[in-house]
Amino acid sequence: MLELSVLFPSILNGLTTGAVYALIALGLTLVYGVLHIINFAHGAALMIALYGVYYLHERAGIDPYLSLPIMVPAMFAGGYLLYRFVIGKAGHGKDENILLVTLGISIFLENLALALWKSDTRSIETSYTFSTVAIGPAMIAVPKLVACAGALAAAAILLGVVHGTDLGRAIRACARERQGARLVGIDVAHVFAMSFGIGLACLGAAACFLLPAYYVNPQVGNGFVLIAFTIVVLGGMGSFAGALVGGLLIGVVESVCGLWLGESLGQIGIFVIFIAVLLFRPQGLFGAKT
Amino acid sequence: MKELARIVVFAVAVGLLPFVTSSGVVLNLVIMILYAALLGQAWNILAGFGGQFSFGHAVFFGTGAYAAAVLQTGFGWNAWLTLPAALAAGAAVGAFIGALCFRYGLRGSYFALVTLAFAEVFRILANNVPFTGAGVGLMVKLATGAAHFQFADKAGYLYVMLAFVVTGLGLSAWLKHSRYGAWLQAVRDNESSAAALGVNVFRVKLAAIVLSGALTAAAGVFYVQYFQYIDPGLAYGPSVSIEALLGPIVGGLGTVWGPVLGAAALQILGNATRSLFAGTPGVSLMLYGALLVLMIMFLPQGLIGLARPSARAREKDRAATPAAAPSDGSAAAAATRDGPPA
Predict the structure, then answer these.
(1) Average pLDDT in chain B
(2) Mean pLDDT, to the nearest integer, of B237-256?
C-alpha cells in the first residue's frame, strides 16, 4: 500500500498541475459552451504559445512571468482572427466541418513548428527553476506553486469577465440562444470570435505559467489536448465550475496513477476516466442533462 | 452495373502497370496510393456512408498490424494465415468500440473524441505489455517468397494491394446500391427519422464499424508485410488516423471513388513536397493540414464534386422538373421502400 508520506506530496503535486490543466480546460470549455464546437487545435495553440514564451525568454531575455502582458493579448488576437477568417468561414454551419477544420489547423500548426523549430525538446532555465518550498512533508517546486496560483487567478479573472461585463453577458446570451441574441442586436459573429480569442488567451496565460517548470516541442500540445478534453467532458461541456474541479481532479488522478502504475502506464488512468465519463455520464459532473 | 464496369477497368489498368514500367519509384508510389486508398475506403464506410466521424482509426490499423506481427513472430504463423486472424481482430475491436459508443448514443464530436481516446489507450497498452515488444517494436523475419507474403519485386505487393482496394471498391459500390447501404445512409442523413421508419439504428451502425475495422486491419497487415516493422507509435499514433480521414475528405465523402481519388492526389502531392523540401521535416504534413482546411472551406464535396454538375446547376434542374425527388431525401426514401431490417 502507498504510504501517506509518499501519497501526500503526490496529491499536492497533482493539485498544482491540475490548476494549470484547469486553466487550459477553461479556454476549451468557453469555446465549447458558446460555439458548440470542439476545438481540436487547442493543444497546438498551446504549443505555439509555449514557443512564444520560450523565444521571448531566449531572444529578448524576458522572464516567462513578465511575458504575460505580451502573450495573452497576442494569443487573443490570434484566436480572434483565426475564428473570423478561417473557422467561422469554413464551417458552413455544420459541426463535423468545424471539427475537421480545427483538426486541420492543429496538423498545420504542429508541422509548422516542426519545420521551423525542429523536433528538439527545449526548456528554459531561470533562477527559480530548481528552488523548492516545503509544505508539510512535501517539497514543491516554486514554479509549480506560482503556476498554481497564477492559473487560479487567471480563472478568477475569466469568471469575472464572463459574469461581470457586458461582453460576458453577450457571450452568455450567445451561448444560451444565438438566434435570440441576434434579435436583440448582439453582433453574434463578433462575440463568437471574441470567445474564441478569450479561449486562446487562456492558453497564453497557461503557457507563461507552464514553461518555467515544463518544456516545449512540436508534439507537446497532444499530451494536453486529450487531458483538456477529459476535464471538459468530466466537468460537463461548457461548465466553468466543472472545468475547475475537473482540472484539479485530473491532476491528482494523473499524479497518483503515475505513482501507482509507473510514469508510462499511469497516463491510462486519465483515458479510462475519459471513456467512462463519455459513456456513462456524457453530461459530466456539473452539466445539465439534455 | 456501370459501377462494376468502372471497377473492372480500374483493376485492369492498375494491374497492367507492372508490365508497362519496372521503375521501383513509380510502383512504390502506386502501392502507397493503393494503401492510403484502402485506409480511406475503410474510414469512408463509417464516416462517409454512416456519418460517424472517427478520429482514431489507428486503433483498428494497429490491432491488425500487431495481430499479424505477433502471430508471425511469437507463434510462427504463416503470414497469409495471419490475414483472416487480423481481420477478425479488427472487426472485434470495431464491435467492442461500436457496441460501447452506439449503445450509449454517442455521436458527432463525442464519438470522434472517444475513438481518439481508444487509440491512445491502445498505444499506451502496446507500449507497456511485453508481447508487443513494447517501445522497441516488432521486427518481422525476412522470408522472401510469395508463400510468405513477402515478394521479391514490388509487383507482388501491388497485386495484393490492388486486390484489397478492389474489394473496398466493391464494398463501397454495394453500400451505395444495397438495402443495407440505404439504411446506413438514412442513419447518416437523419438518425431519428431513420429510426422512425423502422431502421435498427444501433445494428446498422455496429455493422458499419465492424466492416470498417476489419478493412482497416487489412491495411495494418499489409503495412507489416511491406515494411516488416511495427511499433506502438506507428501502429496507434495519430498519423494513421489522419491519413485515413484525409483521403476521403479530399476525394469526396460517401462516394465510391472519393477515397481512391483523394489518396492519389495526396500521395502525389506528398511525394512532390517531400522531394522539394527534403531538408525540412513536416512540410508535407503541414500542407495536408492546410489542404484539409481549404477543402472544407471551398470544396466540401471533395475533388469528385468538381466532376459533378454544381449544386446550382442541379437546383436549376430540379426547378425545371418539379416531379423529381429531392436528392438528399433519396436514401431515406430508399430505406422505406426496402422495408424495415430483420
Answers:
(1) 82
(2) 88
Q: How far apart are CA A16 and CA B211, in angstroms?
A: 45
DSSP-H helix ranges across B178-257: 179-189, 191-196, 201-227, 232-236, 238-251
Contact yes or no for A226 and B127 at CB 8 A: no
Extract the C-alpha cell encoding A114. 516542426
A232 vs B218, more confident: B218
C-alpha span between B316 and B322 (Å, rounded): 10
Closest B-chain CA to A222: B238
CB-nearest partner of A95 from B109, B125, B288 = B109
Fold of A4-280: ABC transporter involved in vitamin B12 uptake, BtuC (1.10.3470)
Q: Is A284 helix (H, G, I), strand (E, B) or coil?
A: coil
Inter-chain contact A108–B293, Cβ cutoff 8 Å? yes
Angle between helices B258-276 and B283-298 (to 10 degrees): 140
Weakest-pLDDT range from A65-69, A120-124, A133-137: A133-137
Q: CA of A11 to nearest chain B CA: how many angstroms apart?
A: 23
What was the pLDDT predicted at B326? 44
Using the predicted structure, report yes or no on whether residue B225 has a pLDDT greater than 70: yes
> Does some domain include residue B124?
yes
Residue contacts between A and B (CB atoms, under 8 Å): 125
Mean pLDDT computed over A204-232: 85
- pLDDT score of A33 more than 50: yes
CA–CA dist A183, A188 (Å, integer): 10
Identify the bridge partners of residue A134 per DSSP, sorted by sequence position.
A139
CATH of the domain at B214: 1.10.3470
- Put simply, the chain B residues between 218 and 247 with a CB less than 8 A from any chain A CB are 238, 242, 245
**Helix (H), strand (E), coil (C) string for A116-174:** HHCCCCECCCCCCCCCEEEECCEEEEHHHHHHHHHHHHHHHHHHHHHHHCHHHHHHHHH
pLDDT of residue A289 exceeding 80? no
